[in-house]
Amino acid sequence: MEYSERVVEAFALMYELHRTQLRKGSRTPYITHLLGVASLVGGHGGDENQFIAALLHDAVEDQGGLDTLERIRAQFGDDVAGLVLACSDADTDPKPPWQERKDQFLESVRNADGRVKLIVAADKLHNSRELAGHLLERGPEVWKIFKAGKERMLWFQAETLRALEQGGWRHPILRELNDAVDMLQRTADRVEREAAEDR
User: Fold this and answer.
1) 9, 16, 58, 62: which one is catalytic?
2) Is 139 left (phi over 0), alpha (psi -120 to 50) or beta?
3) Measured between alpha carbons, how far is 63 from 20 in angstroms, rounded to an integer?
4) 97 three-state secondary structure
5) Per-residue confidence at 112, pLDDT binned at 50, 70, 90?
6) Are 18 and 64 spatial neighbours (Cβ–Cβ below 8 Å)?
7) Is 151 a catalytic residue?
């Protein structure tokens, strides 16, 4: 499969929208996450539109809501816009309360088609791996970065995996995500235990 120059345009839009954004609690450019997710999607057989949507999967949620969605639609078409919207848990600012957003997102994932699920799985896989690494590096203080806190963050990762598995979708990335979610839980337990021993 050979991607077209549309991918170059998607890189440019991704950079424009997210260039000043950082990962929560770090100095890491946010675009590293978007590139990581797109790499996973492409490496697991995603088509060009899925790859573009992976690059832009947080654009609506974090960078302009429905106005940004219409810009994506105008530049890349209805399919990419639909994929991006399906990967977004909010399209307004301010966003709805955390639990409400996540419950609605999980319901939409349960009913999504496989093309959407691949992007969502790649997103959660990248997040789980990165979060486990931060826990090993910085300990349980990492949880203070997230308003939702430790228990709800771990709950959401596990529930997203379950939502992806519903409807009979089977894909090799699910095994990787299952391993990553399990590793995240075990890492969280380990650093919590070690922190308690040090007190």
Assistant:
1) 62
2) left
3) 11
4) coil
5) very high
6) no
7) no
Number of residues that this document lists for the chain: 199
Active site residue 61: yes
Provide the percentage of residues in the chain whose pLDDT is more than 70: 100
Looking up residue 11, the CATH number of its domain turns out to be 1.10.3210.10
pLDDT digits (tens, 9 = 90+) for 131-145: 999 999 999 999 999
Instruction: Give 63-105 pLDDT, tens digit per residue.
Output: 999 999 999 999 999 999 999 999 999 898 889 999 999 999 9
Nearest Cα residue to 31 out of 13, 43, 47: 13
Catalytic residue among 61, 89, 130, 159: 61
1 domain-assigned: no
Residue 20 sits in which domain range? 6-198
Say whether pTM exceeds 0.85. Answer: yes
| Residue 88 backbone class (left: φ over 0; alpha: ψ -120 to 50; beta: rest) | beta
